[in-house]
Amino acid sequence: MKLREELPVDHHLATVYRCGAAFCGLVLLVFAALGFADALSPFDTSGDTIAGMSTNIALSVVSTVVGVALLVGAAVGGNFASTLNLVVGGLFVLSGFAHLFVLDRPANVLDFGMTNVVFSFLMGLLIATFGMYGRVSSKLAHDNPYWRRRHPGRTDRETPRAPVAGLPGK
After folding, report:
1. What angle in degrees, to the nearest 10, is found between the helix axes of 57-76 and 13-38?
2. What b/e readout covers 142-160, taking b as 16+ CB neighbours within 10 angstroms?
3. What is the pLDDT averaged over residues 34-51?
4. Percent of the chain scored above 70 by pLDDT?
5. By CB neighbour count within 10 A (0-12 exposed, 13-18 middle, 19+ buried), where does 98 fall?
6. Among 13, 17, 20, 49, which is most buried by a count of CB atoms within 10 Å?
7. CA atoms within 13 A on the CB side of 123
8. Helices (H) and strands (E) in the chain, counts
9. Is pLDDT larger for residue 164 or for residue 47?
10. What's the gap between Cα 109 and its chain centre?
11. Cβ atoms < 10 Å from Cβ of 74
């Protein structure tokens, strides 16, 4: 699938992309702020838990960077927010898989625990869903700009017509 700039500036899907990016960015910033408030050392792997997840300053920095990036995406909106949500969501899922392999090992510098891995998977799927909303489906509405872009010239033939009087409708 090609991710092009086919979404009109005023399309209602832009609101979904913006709200999704803003919500997830704020959640990450709150988690980061709580991690900074705990004032752990940067790569401490025996720190306290925040909201049920283990953290350290390095994870708080990463959460801050990603949260700010999502808020920037929310401010820009449109296809940029959608594409950013898709990319960040995919990276969260990959991060969850990567951290599964380093649990309880010295390479676990971000102090991930199993709850962090589950959070990474869930947050990644949520962010990616916001990015794919109205963009990836087999039953997109015919007025959807992504459907029109994928089916040039078929817009007129595919639009539903009013039933003719006396004939049964479909």
Report:
1. 160
2. eebbbbbeeeeeeeeeeee
3. 69
4. 65
5. middle
6. 17
7. 25
8. 6, 2
9. 47
10. 24
11. 22
Q: Is the pTM above the cut of 0.85? A: no
Count of beta carbons in the 10 Å neighbourhood of residue 104: 9
- SS3 state at 17: helix
70, 99, 107 from 26: Cα distances, Å = 8, 23, 28
Q: Which residue has the tokens 């702020």?
A: 33
DSSP 95-150: HHHHHHHHTTSTT-TT---HHHHHHHHHHHHHHHHHHHTTTS-SS--TT-HHHHHH
- Whether the CB-CB separation of 131 and 83 falls below 8 Å is answered with yes
Angle at 52 between CA 51 and CA 55, to 5 degrees: 80
Residues 110, 120 contacting (CB under 8 angstroms): no
CA 152 to chain centre: 28
Q: Where are the beta strands (DSSP E) in 39-108?
A: 49-50, 53-54
The residues pairing with 53 across neighbouring beta strands, listed in sequence order, are 50
pLDDT (0 to 100) of residue 1: 46
